[in-house]
Design goal:
36% helix, 19 helices, seven-stranded antiparallel β-sheet, single chain, alpha+beta, binds 6-diazenyl-5-OXO-L-norleucine
Length: 561
Amino acid sequence: MPEVKRLICLCAALLFVLPANAPAEQNLHQAAIASAHPLATRAGFEILKKGGNVFDAAVAVSAALAVVEPSGSGLGGGGYWLLHRADDGFETMIDGREKAPFAARRNMFLDGRDKAIPKLSVDGALAAAIPGMPAALVHLSERYGRLPLAESLAPAIRYAENGFAVGHKFLKLLKTRQQAVRRFASSSRIFLPKGKPPELFSILRQPDLANTLKQIAKSGRDGFYRGDVAAKFVKSVREAGGIWTGEDLESYRAVERRPLKGDYRGIKITSSAPSSSGGIVLIEALNVLSGYDLKPADDTARKHLIVEAMRRAYHDRALYLGDPDYVAVPAERLTNADYAAGLRSSIRFDKALPSVMLAGETELEPEAANTTHFSIIDREGNRVAATLSINFPFGSGFVADGTGVLLNDEMDDFASSAGEGNGYGLVGGAANAIAPGKRMLSSMTPTFLENERGVAVLGTPGGSRITSMVLLAALDYAEGHEPASWVKVPRFHHQYLPDAIQYEPGALSEAEIAGLAAKGHRLMSLPERYGDMQAVLWNKKTRELSAGSDPRGEGLALVGP
Ligand code: DON
């Protein structure tokens, strides 16, 4: 009897204690996934239904995107997976960013007169850094997943074997990179069957890629970084003028890093740590803005302040940020509220500060799009925000023969030559110079936002503009809007250099353009809208999930059991 009594007491105590101690988002009954491709979103739900957790689903979505959105990410690329575990609140970031091969040298893309050799860091095998995605997926599955890796990779293998219907976005991006793809028979065979882009909605099968995925499913890391597949990579890359060795592949490791933390008006921000610049630039800009009441400000005044905050944060990106395994990154200082107060003291309401007036090194070098993002919350309240990249659409255009794997051109994200910006017009300094085995600085900004209203998971592709897009979405969240609103916010951007406000069609009114110009801003209208944001929200008050997929893309956001 005493046993029973103790049990009753214990149960009563648990009933009382659990709801208070357990994370509020547990047992949501539903899950939400937003990704850039409907088949990837469905792969995630398939794995959740099989009893997988959010981390297994993230493996499935990442691998599926590698197959059905080869323009944006893939086994030949890398990325960042920001994780939150609901039962103990544990958070980490998997850094699966590519690394420069050991034979890489600071001036490898320059001619004898220190001028960048056109396209060398963008097209072909020399542009490819050592991929991080396969190592990151194995790590994610083994360390945090519930299902065997082979099960989480199964939907991607199926898509690669049975094929998927080629869509508008695929064709549009392929057309922009056709020249690079056409140079290599191994790539043309897959992406330019019959010598030209496939027909809209025709079925694209990738049997070699299916085999490479199966090797990973069977042997984990070794299925990619050692043995037959690795040998094929090294042979094919070297024959095409690249510099990879077996040692580069064998020694690659995905690493875990502590996510960056910040606070904007009571909203807790969790975002990417270096080797991405995303979290620091986002938090630094929000810290600057937290000193202003943006609500009553008129539209021009509000945008002026946002631009001035972006200018200063991107300036520090160029000066200080690089791979933390190679350079000392002053993350604490740059994300400190007092530091932001100092930056605010140089902001005037009536006038833009020309970027050249910002203190610091002037000899900055250029860094150099395609990428993808997905966001998931599972029914236990676990979360993943992942941004993955092979850099330009279809990466380097080079498929290592027999592997089906399209290699990245992420070497262009290093600051490699003086005088010009990279593919995104970004400049950088010594902190982001090429060095053997180093990770190139990224702008990817997978992010969580949390306050009493809810928990948001978001991110987007878009090169240098990634972080400013997440910033605009965070401000929209702060105003109480839903994911469907954050993903369609009209976008404008400032990245320190070039010293201009870049904006997509319709993002600024005539009055705002005139008002900003009167303050001394240079305005640069962009020909097209940009970004492909994927976001989910758990509303703590209504206990409902909602999700949004950028109307600029072809993604799918779903809430379901
Ligand atoms: O890591 C980076 O910052 C870039 N490689 C991202 C490129 C990108 O987002 C292109 N997207 N449209």
